[in-house]
Amino acid sequence: MKDKTLLKYVYVVVGLAMGFLVGTMLVDTNKEMDDLKHQTSVQQSTIEHQRRELDRVEKTNDALVNQANETKGE
């Protein structure tokens, strides 16, 4: 009888340990997901900024080409 009681306690301890491990893994996974979402947001912001800068440079380049063509035409 003593062995069965001891075995029950071992099962309870193992169950609690497994529950703790699963809970810890879920928390770590959620933190990793939040970190990845933040990193993605920062990268998207950087890409948008670079696109705006590229558009500005292309417009300036087009204006300079037009100006050079007008100067040649005179």
Average pLDDT metric: 90
The number of distinct β-strands equals 0
Question: Helical content, roughly?
Answer: over 70%
Percentage beta strand: under 5%
So what's the overall shape? Answer: rod-shaped
Helix run count:
1
pLDDT < 50 runs, ≥5 residues: none
- Rg measurement, Å: 32 Å
User: What about the largest sheet?
Assistant: none
Q: How far do the termini sit from each other?
A: 109 Å
- Order of helices and strands, N to C? H
Q: Which class best fits the helix and strand makeup?
A: mainly alpha
Task: Describe the structure in your own words.
The chain is rod-shaped. The protein has one helix spanning 2-73. The chain contains one helix and no strands. It has 74 residues and is mostly helical.
Please write out the topology.
Elements: H1 2-73
Task: Produce a short descriptive summary.
By secondary structure, the chain is mainly α. The chain has one helix at 2-73. The termini are far apart.
Any descriptors?
single chain; 74 residues; mainly alpha; 97% helix; rod-shaped
